[in-house]
Amino acid sequence: GTVCDGDWTIEDAEVVCKQLRCGSAIQALNRASFGEGSGPTWLYRVHCRGDESTLWNCSHPGWGAFTCPHYFDTGVICSGKKSSNLPRAEIRKGLIQQLAYRNCHNGYLKVSVVLREVTCFSGLRLTRGDTACSGHLTVKQEETWATVCFSHIDFKTASVICHELECGQAVDILRGTHLEDRHELIWQEEFHCVGNETHLAHCPRMQHHSKTCSHDATVVCSGETLLTNGSTTCSGRVELLHGGTWGTLCDYLWDLPAANALCQLLDCGVALLIPGGQSFGKGNGSVWNGTFSCKKNGSHLRDCPVSGLGHDECPAGKDARVICSGLSEALDQLVNGTACSGRVEIRHGDTWGRLCRSHWNLQAASVLCHQLNCGYAKSIQTGDHFVDGNGPVWRDAFHCEGSESCLWDCAQMTLGNPTCSAREAATVICSGSRQIRLVNGTMRCAGRVELYHDGIWGTICDDNWDLSDANVVCKQLGCGHAIKAFVSAHYGEGSGRIWLDDVNCTGAESDLWACPSRAWGQHNCQHKEDAGVLCSEFLALRLVNGNDCAGRLEVFYNGTWGSICSNRMSQLTAITVCKHLNCGDGGEIARDFKYGRGSGPTWLDHIECTKQHNSLWQCQSDPWDPQSCDNRAEETHISCTDREKLRVIGGEDGCSGRVEIWHQGSWGTVCDDSWDMADANVVCRQLSCGSAVSALSEAAFGEGTGPIWLEKVHCKGTELSLWDCPAKPLFGKNCDHKEDAAVDCSGYNRISTPVILCIILGALLCLVLAILAGQIRSARVQQRGGSLRTGMKCLLDMAVECLGGWGDE
Do you know which Gene3D superfamilies this protein is assigned to (predicted)? Predict the structure, then answer.
């Protein structure tokens, strides 16, 4: 069986190499770099210190504790044995290098004829970098790591290093830390690589006679990701190195956060645009299907959760593409607007600061817009646009002709301290700053159409709005084709400007603003006429024929609801579905098919999720296919076991109080509109608290907090749970917490008022009987017998009636 790559580190690899007597670890690899294994996953989340004698002596959750897809199998590269004695007869000119390579795997340092020994070049590594593919270069000399001087390598050498470490292409060589006061072993040879060597040890080297080295070398590689077919190294089609093979990334849900994470990983600033169509051509090699789900700002692509990568075809337009702003070291950026508009900031050292606008002009602004792939400068807006911020105000003044490719190519002067206030910072609006987005849909491919123009977001009027117009929007956003063009503020009314009216696209335009329309800002509309679209790549998930958290699993794709097949589906995938639907952290696949059979397409099959996935869209699956299932018996039925929960708060016990339900990860209340005894009876029965004594309103047990989840509940009183009753989800402002509904239940262990009265009467009866018994003994039967019989009969009738009522309770 295999080892899963959860937190697989160089320390873990070191134990493996030592256990196999293969020297020390050079690299700890993951994502099935040496191909996918088979059989069980024996170990997961191994944590070694590096000094353990065997891998299973390291900390781990237990054997077979986690089932891990084999595309997460780990691997190692070890240095091999450090030296070997050679026969004296074989040490001949022309054979020395060959023998050394054979015995050391990675080449040699020197050959001693006297000792008949090859001293091996046994590894290289990059340390103290932001990623595994960048850092200070050290090589292993015998058993000691030696620092490589900045002056001892060049860009071709860096290319070989990145290739050997499977880190893509060399991006840069930087002067590292100062070594004058550091007591480290310094590598004494210069590397003179041609650039096509597979290992650094294969490069020619020259002894460096000077013992001095002022700075160490820092190498920056692109990592397992690069951009191809672009006009610069910071734009193009996304290609990934996976399993030792480069291939095009096919990502159905490729979005701006993932593109932004990639740009930062490649030291290319921020993502400006995800171009549509066939930009940057089609790859000729492998295709890797996967989805990167990047949510945290500033994250690198390799830190984002990713679905499994596998071979497949990639439909036209689904390959990942991006245009980044440029090298992050370019020392300038726009802040508080968009990628193509905002306050100008430049960096000195590690500090970002504003640029005073006193010497800022349209020529310099145009150079900056061109540098950021944002067209030309439309305006160096004054006033309050983009000015909020803090930090220093730099003294730089740029004197540009307007034809320079980079702001830093312009003549530059450092003036005296400027007297600049926060509202006097340099700003710019570039021509490429127009953007488009969809708002108020549940995902990015459906919603109200909004445009960013002249620094302001605004809407589009629905006059003449049709499917051709919507098609341009969907294509521009990489959301496939339009399913429906909505009018009359279907996705809610927007605010601010209404930018376009009477849009009349043919459907072939690349941008919505390329379509004929009225001039920007000219319209005769109100926001109740805002236009919207639904695109084919809009995805949604639901459970049907049961309730929100139990039923047959269906997905909305290409404008149609369809089923999902259950082949190879695990309980972990069912749990992921429940998380996705905000139905708790528990779920199971229902095998009784009680939720009926579907009639539409069967969209997906072979879905495999891992513990890292919180959304079904992150999981690996077969491609979209309307006939994925062989028959309807393969449709998936799921029951979420940790779905909505119910409680009552504020009463004396768990059977009276304000009604609260758990939904979408939080507790909320129920509005008292239409709240009656039938509703209260369902709540009491669901809580195992008997029947309802009263249905209370107007926050009788105090006002709750959080959302108000339901209003106008209409139970018959026979339902098994409150969410089986018809109700209206509360999204508006019809209720507030002073209208929270409540119940008082009889309870199985509680004593109601009639029962208490019967107990009192019973006690009084016993007392009366005792008195009468005494009187009977002392009285004469003949004189009082008739009256006693009458009195006893009356009391006994009372007792039977009382105790009979108690029994009913």
Answer: SRCR-like domain
